[in-house]
Structures are given as structure tokens and as C-alpha cells.
Amino acid sequence: MHGPAQRRHACSLTCGTVNFGDDVFMNPWGFMTDLYQATQEKGIVPEFELFDLGHISTLQRLLSAYGLPHGGRIHCDLVMGVPGGFDGDLRTVAAAVQALPEGATWSATGIGRTSVPVLLAALSAGGHLRVGMEDTLTYAKGRPVRDNAELVTRAAATLAQRPPMDPQTARVFLTPSTRTARNRAPVRRPPPSPRRLGQRPGCARPSARP
Fold first, then answer.
1. Rounded to an integer, what distance in angstroms lies between the CA atom of residue 16 and that of residue 54?
2. Burial 105-128 (b: 16+ CB within 10 A, else e)
3. Average pLDDT in the 156-171 region?
4. At 64, phi and psi to the nearest 5?
5. 123, HSE (Cβ side, Cα atoms, 13 Å)
6. pTM > 0.70: yes or no
7. Which of 197, 179, 191, 203 is nearest to 32 (CA)?
8. Nearest to 10 by CA among 43, 56, 49, 46
């Protein structure tokens, strides 16, 4: 999260480390807490990215220690189909949704060939959808995706049969209350945790997705 704070409205915050295929996506606890407190102080809304059930437990721990995010809305994205994380199927979506914090809103993302099955599972469970070329590069067998708009059209118009949120609607949805001082526990800053040689923390990616 570098650069002028006024240019940042939302970011991704991954709630733990995960084996990402042959790689390791590192998000140590100390890095997560520093990042979360920075979003609270700068008025940035985090989208909690969850790759497995252990990440949901870590999210519960984070909220218990540091309170609600800016705006008061706990919004999660279930990232499904990554080798080493959630399977991209209906049963796994259902298990993950049951474990989320009470009152949390959520979307689901299927990586690669799990994209459409996860979209359908999320719709059946009343969730939101997240799509994009970050997660899916193939539209159908043998045919690459043209652009993000093509994926949004398939998800929103064809499958969900409802319009996507525009940016202003998404801001209102994600920040139902900006009076977070009364909603959250006092911010506590533990000493920075030392990182072992070779650890590569994850990053907070600016996000325009609701």
C-alpha cells in the first residue's frame, strides 16, 4: 500500500500462507496484522482473501484482536481451485460459507477450469461473484479470454442475470458505516515479527471489485 492514501479505496488482504501450486504464497501473522491496522488507520476497506478453512480461523483471530475493518463490513472472497487450497466445488463452497464470521458478506472465485462451477455454487448459496483475467485465462476449451468485460458479461448477464455493481454502489455496500471508532477494539501494535530468510510476504493489491 504505497502512494497517496486518497487514491486507495480497497485492497486485498490474504489471511494466511498457502501452497500455490509449486510456489508458496507467504502471509505471516505479523505481516497480516501490520497490514490490517494500516487499512484501519488509512480508511481503506480490505477484502479478506481466503484460500482454505485455516484462513477463516485466522480471520476470526484477526477480528477478535483488532476489531472490525474500516466501514464495519466484513467482506470475504473465497478463492477456490488453487492446488494446495480449497477445492472448487459446491461442497467446499458450502463448508466455507458456514465457517465465515457472522454477518460477513462474501464472493467466490474459481481459478482456471473451476471458474464456472464456483460461479454456479456461489449463486446457489446467495453469494456474490468475482471474475477477472487474474484468475481465468480460458473462456472455453481452446478459446482464450478476450478481456475482463467478457468474463463479467458471462457472470452477471448470462449466469446471475443481474447487473454488476457500479463503483459508487460498491463503495456504499462495502462501507455501511464509516464511524468505525465505536465499532472496533483499540488498535494494538505488537512489535514487528522477524521474518526468516527467504520468506516472501503477500501483497495488498488495489482492488476495484466489490
1. 8
2. bbbbbbbeebbbbbbbbbbeeebb
3. 84
4. -65, -35
5. 14
6. yes
7. 203
8. 46
